[in-house]
Amino acid sequence: MQDLTSRPLPMVLFAVVSASPLVLLGLGLWAGGFWAFAGLIYMTVLAALMDQISGLFMGDAPEGAEFPAADGLLFGLACGHLIALPLIVWGVAGDSGLGPWQRTGLMLGAGLWFGQVSNPMAHELIHRGGRVPYGLGVAVYASLLFGHHASAHRLVHHRHAASAEDPTSARSGEGFYRFFLRAWGGSFVKGWQAENALRARSRGRRGLHPYAVYLGGAALALGLAFVIAGGLGVVVWAGLCLHAQVQLMLSDYVQHYGLTRARRPDGRLEPVAARHSWNAPHWFSSSFMLNAPRHSDHHAHPARAYPALRLPPAEEAPHLPWPLPMACTLALFPPLWKRAIRPHLAKWTLT
User: Fold this and answer.
1) Angle at 19 between CA 24 and CA 59, to 5 degrees
2) Neighbour-count burial for 231-268, b at 16+ CB within 10 Å, e otherwise
3) Which residues lie below 8 Å from residue 99, measured CB to CB, with a gap of 6+?
4) What letter does residue 96 receive in the DSSP assignment?
5) Which residue has the higher pLDDT, 34 or 5?
6) Whether residue 163 has pLDDT greater than 80
7) What DSSP element (H or E) covers 108?
8) Which of 71, 150, 291, 325 has the smallest set of CB atoms within 10 Å of its CB?
9) Closest alpha carbon to 84 in 34, 19, 148
10) What is the CB neighbour count within 10 angstroms for residue 46?
11) Residue 210 near residue 150, CB atoms below 8 Å
């Protein structure tokens, strides 16, 4: 029998683990009671416990392996997201019959799913190529009021990661809250500038500016929130989006924290290498985050499908000592995070 540590995550595990919270959230909306907290418990307690079963499914898929169901899962999760977001807003802010605590549990659980599943799903879609997958990824990001990430991530982050030119690469000693403000505004502006430069080079194929799509999508989303539950619906939709955005930015913060690329004598940055991203080998959170914690390989092969992403050895790239969601939680407490990550960062810091 093959050792599980030598096996990659199977597609069925990606599907079951990432979609199960959506089912639980639906039960919470329909049945109320304990079920309103089931999604929250899944995304926190169960995930933390399952990640402690270390060493499961740490292998890599064979080079060149294909996964025909991978895009199907992305499309299914995207459709689930676009249906679930307005339904959750109705459940929390509308006439759903749920009590205050049930609404709170439902909102927190949904916010975690939007942050830890919807974000990596949309991220995969914007890298897939083709108008339909890309457009669906943009729709998910726009519904989360974060459409500009589709431009900033592809055109800025992948080019300048682990350098001062990338607003979403955290500097050593920088706390998360300061980073969040700098990275949100910086990625919006630099993504806009990158799109303008791209349009200037493509004079014959300009079309609608992507930022018009992002802002228009955000306006439609908030308009739908108002139709669903009035002003409170807008507040709840925006609150869910902020929750999801904070989680995406926490992931960005952790996955490049303190790692920097050297400058060559000609002034150019050295190529992005495995040592410029933090990785996490924990199997359960990797399955619902669609292998996003295998971050070094994503930077090396941005178009590689998520089931095929490879985990670099610990001697070649930094490995987080905690699952990525746990590291992100730790980062919410800057003094604690800096003290905990310092000894792990030391061997990867340029001297």
Assistant:
1) 135
2) eebbebbbebbebbbbbbbbbbbbbbbbbbbeeeeeee
3) 32
4) -
5) 34
6) yes
7) helix 100-113
8) 71
9) 19
10) 15
11) yes
Q: How far apart are CA 291 and CA 311, in angstroms?
A: 9
For range 169-188, the mean pLDDT: 97
Paired tokens of 249: 């930015």
- Quick one: CA dihedral 161, 166, 171, 175, positive or negative? negative
Structure tokens of 13? Answer: 């595990």
| SS3 assignment, position 301 | coil
Whether the Cβ atoms of residue 325 and residue 285 lie closer than 8 Å to each other: yes
pTM greater than 0.85 (yes/no):
yes
The pLDDT of 52-67, averaged and rounded, is 84
Helix (H, G, I), strand (E, B) or coil at 205: coil
Average pLDDT over residues 65-76: 94
Q: Which residues of 49-62 are buried (b: 16+ CB within 10 A; e: fewer)?
A: ebbeeeebbbbbbe
Low-confidence winner among 65-69, 199-203, 250-254, 339-343 (lowest mean pLDDT)? 199-203
226's tokens = 């108002």
Mean pLDDT score of the chain, rounded to an integer? Answer: 94
126-141 pLDDT, tens digit each: 999 899 999 999 999 9
pLDDT tens digit string along 88-141? 999 999 999 999 999 999 999 999 999 999 999 999 999 998 999 999 999 999
Phi, psi (deg, nearest 5) at residue 347: -75, -15
Task: Report how far residue 54's alpha carbon sits from residue 281's, in angstroms, rounded to the nearest whole number.
Answer: 9
d(Cα 13, Cα 108) in Å, to the nearest integer?
24
As a whole number of angstroms, the distance between CA 225 and CA 114 comes to 16
Alpha-carbon distance 268 to 75, whole Å? 38
Question: Residue holding tokens 């509308």?
Answer: 94
